[in-house]
Input
Amino acid sequence: MATPTALDTVRATATGGTPPPVAGRTARRLRRRNTLAGWSFILPNFIGFAALTLVPVVASLALAFMQWNSYSTPEWVGLDNFRRMLASETFWTALYNTTYYALGHIPLTMVAALGFAVLLNRKLRGVQFFRTALFFPYITALVAVAVVWNMLFNPDAGPVNQLLRAIGVDNPPGWTTSTTWAMPAVIITSVWRDMGYYMVLYLAGLQTIPAELYEAARTDGASAWQRFWHITVPSLRPTTFFVLIMLTISSFKVFDLIQVMTEGGPGRSTLVLSQLIFREGITEGRFGYSSAIAMVLFVIVLLVTVIQFRLQQRSER
Amino acid sequence: MSVTVARRLALQALLTILGLAVLVPFGWMLVSSVKLDSQVLTVPIQWIPQEFHWDNYTRIWDRIPLATYLYNSMFLSVTITFLQVLTGSFAAYGFAKINFPGRDVLFLAYIATIAVPWQAYMVPQYIIMERLGLVNTHLSLILLQAFGAFGVFLMRQYYLTIPDELTEAARIDGLSEYGIWARIVLPLSKPALASLALLTFVNTWNDYMGPFIYLNSNDLWTVQIGLRTFIGLYEAEYAMIMTGSVLSILPILVVFLLGQRYFVQGIATSGLK
Output
């Protein structure tokens, strides 16, 4: 009998038969060697990842059902944290504000990003410069962004209201000093900041649309609007879907911008869920309660994402 | 014919106006940084300062320990970027090029945590750091950000595009797995390494919440925290605040202009899969 080769092993495995004994030993040795090598590559990263991400994620799941403050010992309390949360007016305000922010931020950013991408996908003067310029707000430090916009939104002497007065608005909004206008101010700032990032994604998507499609449509006499609506928009569907998911996840998690711009105020008018989690957990030291709110935020993000996936699948069918 | 020309001109005008409008906040920041405090918020706006107070840029170093802040930000950004790229690309090799049982489940755990909002586990994370006695040290931030799942994900996506025949051939030639990683895969993945390094550097430099939660001592603060505190204490020093803001984004501007195409590549790589 000829010595079994590696090929025999593959064949035997593929057909579901038992590999020849010698090859079996070799395969086992190979697998053990691979396992060792594989883990040795992953381990340096995995130790840090497991200790500081994986364990905390699992722990926060358990903490939501516990009563634990900085000083007390952890105690299992079942659904107590959730009951307290549902009875808390602050929680409902934060949930409302988070939804408000998301419903403003997501569509506006998408429209702005797509609009700029379509405009900057043409051969116009300065296209390269504006592509760069539009992306820059996204990587600008948040503190600088918040400070500049807070001043631009100054109710009396801020450039925004001066512009509004110039075009005939007699009583321009109080922006970050007003409970009604603080959230719109935050949304405007965040759209300005984020649109460049999503524009880059849209630009990448636009480059995959074959020029022949537009040529053909033009020959058929389709107007610019018709071409946009019947070629660009459908071709960009995968990109739009990805953009939507990313925007949804980041909108529901919004924290930094609001923390620096308004700290949730005035009053509780811009208080969002992630900020409430932060206040309860880190500032107040109510670890269990804060984890329960975190769990709700996580479930919301998960649910919205799953629903979007489902809708996407249905529309593809 | 003239209709097309008119349309082109209209589009060009639209692009110029919209593009410049997006840049107005930066322009305003720059102009305000060389004004007097009293000239920043005026009616009407002075787009060109009456006199240029360049001394704002020398005075700020005495007002806040900006040199310390810049050093801290630089130290954290460089250390974290180095570790993230090193351990990320190393782990990515294990995920992309070696076949072993349990690999895909493990990778799924990495991906899943990317989708979990950070606020959901920041409390347990903080408790762990507190128990380790690392709160109010730079080490806490380094540990938190150096082993990110994102780096592993981004590098793995790139390694998948490197043909397996290449690593197979090296294996047959007797090169060890570590040799293959160091001598074949790493040199081939320079663009991905560059985008990961740039994205990590910028994220760390701009990070506000990490230092905000973990660092209490002034001499450990980063530029972002230092600047925010300065603003909190001296709300009315508008010009000085703008000067600090300009200085805080200058390093990012330099990094960005040097590595522009890698940013775009990084976004595209993470966005495609």
